[in-house]
Structure formats: structure tokens, C-alpha cells
Write a sequence for this structure.
């Protein structure tokens, strides 16, 4: 049984989405190895761990956008 | 007038930067004891041994031996530190840090940070004022109820 209320879950989902989009944008633009992206990724990972600790089924959470490496983003730019 | 001040034991996790020296000096001048670390492992080992810590301050973008969110959750899981004020600082953030800030700030709050301070330009006076506004009262420090 989850200890989280519906509004908590919504807020956590919104924050995850915000972080996830921010990470992808920042990694594509500036590279995935920057400290800002590292910190945002750490926030995302810890949010998910926190949600799981509260007894919420993390499988119900929307999938986050995967981490984009610097090399992949460069390759994609070349193809375009 | 040192006797009337709230003198707290503070742990600060910050990178070695010139500007931080001002903050440390200001806190020390105000009668606070400040221990400065530039990595999470050292701070964790001190927190394990030292009972009295009234506040923890950490640079959001420090990444020596871990990250601030792992550290924050470790602190909050410790029953002795669950109520210790935890301040996160974002000093002179880059363009990218500003873009990501919303999510970072919200995550900080959700994971238990007491205060998130962003300063576009370092202002040690304003910072000191904000930090002191959330320090535990002198009475609780003396009685040892806040550890």
C-alpha cells in the first residue's frame, strides 16, 4: 500500500517529467557529461528510489526518456 | 554580544572557490562553528561520529564522491538527522543549470531539503541572512533537542 497521496504522486510525476525533458535537452545541447546533467540525473534516480520506498509501484510511472550520450547526440546531428 | 547569538554547528559541503571564503568567514564571525568539506564521503564519516550538527549546507552541483541527492536522502534516513535543517545552494548557475533548476528545486523539496537558495551573483550577506533565518532557536540548541 503506497504511503503517497494522489497529489503527491502527481507532483512527483510532474517533477520526473520536467527533469527528464531537461536532461535530454541539456545533454543534446551541451553534452551528457556536464555536472548539471549529472545532478539532474541524480535527482531523477533518487526520486524513483523514494517513490519505491513509499510503497508505490514504480511500474505505474511513465517511462523516462533514456540518457542521451554526447557521442550519440553528435551522430544524430550529422545524419540530420 | 556573543552570549545572545544563536551559535550553531554547521557542516558545509562546497567546492574550493574564493567566494565561499566570505560565507565561511561571515558564519564564523557570527559565532557559528563551520566544518567545510569538498566531498561527500568525508561529510558522511563526520556525521556518523559527531552527534551535534545543527545545520547542513551543500552546493547543489558538488559531485565529489557522490551527489547531493544521495547525500540528502542518506541524511533524512538517519533518525537523528531527520529534522536537521538542510540547505541547498546554487551559486551563479550556468545557463544549463538555470534551465534544469525547476526540476532540481522541486526534487530537493520532495526529498526533504529545508531550503533551496539560488543566487545569480554571490551575496554573502543575503546568504547569511537566509541561512540564519532557519537556524534552530538558541533554546533548542542549548537543550540539545536539535541534533
Amino acid at each position: 500500500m503506497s504511503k503517497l497521496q494522489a497529489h503527491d504522486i502527481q507532483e512527483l510525476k510532474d517533477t520526473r517529467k520536467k527533469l527528464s525533458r531537461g536532461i535530454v535537452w541539456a545533454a543534446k545541447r551541451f553534452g551528457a557529461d556536464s555536472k548539471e546533467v549529472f545532478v539532474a540525473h541524480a535527482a531523477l534516480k533518487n526520486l524513483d528510489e523514494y517513490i519505491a520506498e513509499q510503497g508505490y509501484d514504480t511500474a505505474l510511472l511513465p517511462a523516462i526518456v533514456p540518457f542521451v550520450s554526447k557521442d550519440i547526440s553528435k551522430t544524430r546531428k550529422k545524419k540530420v | 554580544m556573543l552570549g545572545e547569538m544563536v551559535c550553531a554547528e554547521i557542516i558545509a559541503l562546497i567546492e574550493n572557490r574564493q567566494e565561499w571564503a566570505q560565507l565561511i568567514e561571515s558564519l564564523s564571525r557570527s559565532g557559528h562553528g563551520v566544518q567545510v568539506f569538498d566531498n561527500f564521503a568525508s561529510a558522511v564519516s563526520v556525521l556518523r561520529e559527531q552527534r551535534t550538527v545543527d545545520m547542513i549546507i551543500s552546493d547543489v552541483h558538488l559531485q565529489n564522491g557522490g551527489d547531493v541527492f544521495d547525500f540528502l536522502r542518506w541524511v533524512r534516513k538517519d533518525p537523528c538527522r531527520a529534522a536537521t535543517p538542510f540547505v541547498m545552494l546554487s551559486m551563479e548557475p550556468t545557463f544549463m543549470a538555470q534551465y534544469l533548476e525547476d526540476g532540481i528545486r522541486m526534487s530537493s523539496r520532495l526529498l526533504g531539503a529545508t531550503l533551496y537558495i539560488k543566487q545569480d551573483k554571490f551575496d554573502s550577506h543575503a546568504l547569511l541572512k537566509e541561512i540564519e533565518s532557519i537556524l534552530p532557536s538558541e533554546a533548542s540548541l542549548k537543550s540539545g533537542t536539535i541534533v
